[in-house]
Amino acid sequence: TQVSDLSPLSSLTQLRQLNLDQTQVNDLSPLSSLTQLSTLSLDQTQVNDLSSLSSLTQLRELKLSQTQVSDLSPLSGLTQLSTLFLDQTQVSDLSPLEHLKNLTIFTEDKEKAKLWRAEGRKVVSDSDILSLKQVLKYSQH
Question: Residue 88 is part of a domain; what is its CATH number?
Fold first, then answer.
C-alpha cells in the first residue's frame, strides 16, 4: 500500500498490535510513543533504522523480513522480545541480543541459521519446519 507517514499513529498509545507489511514506511519515529505495543510487523517495508523501537519495552514479536535492517543494537533493551523474524535482511551480527535468553529467531537463510546456532542462539529455519512436518506426517501412520 501507499502508507508511508506513521505520524497519525503516535497518539494511539494503548495500541498493542500493528501490521505495516508491504507499505512504504521507512521512518519509525512516530512509533516510539506506542509503549504498549507487543506485536509489530514490518515485513517488506523500506525500514532500515530501528532506533525508534528502543522504547517499546513490551514488544514480544517483531517481524523484519525483507527489509534493509542490518543493525539490531536498538533492540538490546527489549527484554520481553521472544520472537524475531529475520528472513532476507542485512543482519549478520546478533551480539546486541545476546542477553535476550528467551528470544527465538526465525530465518529462511540456512547459512545464517547454522552460524547463529553455533553462537548458541535459538533459531528456527525452513528446514526445521519441513522436518517437523515430515515427522508429524509419518507419526500419523
Answer: 3.80.10.10
